[in-house]
Structures are given as C-alpha cells and as structure tokens.
Amino acid sequence: MELNSIINKIMESDSIAITFHVSPDGDSLGSSLALWAALKKLNKDVKIICNDVIPDVYNFLPGIGNISKDNKLSPGFDLVIVLDCGNKDRICSDIKFDGSCFIINIDHHKSNDNYGDINYVDSTAAAVGEIVYKLIESLNVSLDPDIASNIYTSILTDTGAFRFSNTTADTLRIASELLDKVKFDFSDIYRRIYYSKDIKRIKLYGLVIDSMRLILDGKAVIMTITRDMLKSLETELGDTSDVINIGMEIDSIDTGILIKETEEGLKISLRSKYLFDVSKVASKFGGGGHIRAAGLTLNTTIEEGEKLLTEAFIEELNAGNNKSI
258: which of 9, 43, 178, 269 fits an S-S bond (Cβ 3.0–4.6 Å)? Predict the structure, then answer.
C-alpha cells in the first residue's frame, strides 16, 4: 500500500472533513486530532466531526475543543477522511455514499469493508496513530508537542500501554521517535488516561463486576452495563475499554464479552487472550475489528443478545476455529 494517492488527494483538496467510528476512543480521537493539526499547517480548511459523546478522560487532548457536533459531512467538503472505522455503518457522522464527495478510508482493522474511494488498511499497525504518523511524515509536516501528544495517546491506548500483543517493533520505534523529536509530557498522558477516573466510574466497575457470569464452560466471562446502572450513578457510557479489561483479568477465561445497553440498542465489545478470533464472531452480526478486540451492535434485549453471542461462540468452537492464533 502506498500513501502517495492519499497525499495527492489531500494536496488537491481545499476543504477536508475528518471523522471516525462511533463510541470514540483514544486511537480515533488522537489520530484525528493529530491529522487535523497537520492539515491546518498545510493551510487546509479542515474540520473534525463527531455526533457521539466524547469520553471526559480525553478532554485534555490538544485541539479536542475543535471537534464539531455538526453531523452533516457531505456534500460540502472536497474530501472526507474516515479514520479507525471498519465499516460505514459505524461511522460517527452522516456521510452520503452517493459520489458527492471523495472518501478516504484509513484503518487498521483486518475486517474493514473497503468502503472508501481510496482504502488504506494496514492490519499490522497497532493503532491508526501509527499510520497517521507516517502520513504526516510523508506530507513533510513538522511535528510539534500537540501532534506528538495526540499520536502518542492513540498508540498508548490501542496497545494497552504497550502491553497488548499488537505492539510491534514499529510501534515502539514510532513512540521513541516522538519522544526524540519533540518535548511533550508522556507520563502526564498516562496519568490522565489511567489514573484520573471519578468516583462514579469506580462505582460502575463494582456494578459490572457484580454482573459477571462465566459461560462456555468457563472459557468466557460476560458482563453488562445497563441504562439503569448509568442512571443510578448519574453518569454516561463513554469509552468502556477499561471496563472490559476487568473481566480479562480472570485467569481461567480466554474471552471477555461486554454488553452495553443504549437507547439505540446494544453495543458489544469482545476481547480474547489467545483462543478465539473475536473479529469472526463480530462479523457474523455486521461488526468487526481485530483478532483480539472487536465490536458489534445488536437491536435486541440484553437477554437475547447474550443468547445470540453464546450461540455464535459455540459455533466457532464446533467449527474448530478456536485454536490458539
């Protein structure tokens, strides 16, 4: 895959919109803000659009206040760049796929549907921030502390602070180059993301832990976040990647399933240690992701959602698709 076609399209475009997936996380936000800042340096009229709730934990990110809630993307822009989104149904903005604007799809999910006019999907990248870093380099835009902080946040969060198996030598090289090229407080970024939760969030952990049940003969843990839980704590859903990690700490399980009840239906996060390719399960329901982390949505009750997911994992077991990957 070459970045040249993306660079050429960016350079010939005057007005550019950036968006990403629903339920934005550190990767989608960090990579988008880094690219936004870089394109500003090229004197582009650029806008980030998100119609979902941005988790408070990321309020410290440079440029976060410039994200617009205006849902309409096209027509009106020469170019729309979608970051970190595997399929068009999960895009966090209203894009018309009618040819009224040019769409570039930049992602690292192997299950990506290639819905763009240009599709740059690198499943070896631990985070889209890695791809954006290389793109910014190719655009000959100089790094600054704001861009570096956002890229570092992208990589830090999607690698679980460099703990997950998706961390590569390239991942560590980019993080090292960021620290070598510009001065920014990387330790403060870690503190703000992992040690700045309010008491409502900690209490939510307690409710989720109380909801835990083992399924699949103890191979998986299923957890739920209901609207009643959030209402009782007077809090919002936001990014829940840290919540599912609690279940993954159980030594006897391979897979974590987190079901989140929203007004629009169920948002489901899947994680795996070594046994399942959870992206295959997610794809059965129109979702997608990575081998070890994936997501999907269902328009069912929690009980029906649990039943459908359990059956899908049993199908994977029976098909022999649960070998260590």
Answer: 269
Same domain, 18 and 111: yes
Question: Model confidence over 55-96: pLDDT tens digits?
Answer: 889 999 999 999 987 666 555 799 999 999 988 888 998 888
Q: What is the number of structural domains in the chain?
A: 2
pLDDT, tens only, 232-283: 998 877 666 788 989 999 999 999 999 999 988 999 999 999 888 999 999 9
Distance of alpha carbon 51 from alpha carbon 73, whole angstroms = 11
200 in helix, strand or coil? helix
Please give the model's pTM, rounded to 2 decimal places.
0.85
Cα–Cα distance between 1 and 270 in angstroms, integer?
A: 29
H or E element: which one contains 227?
helix 227-233
In a domain, 184, yes or no: yes
Is 205 in the same domain as 190?
A: no
User: Residue 47's domain spans which residues?
Assistant: 4-194
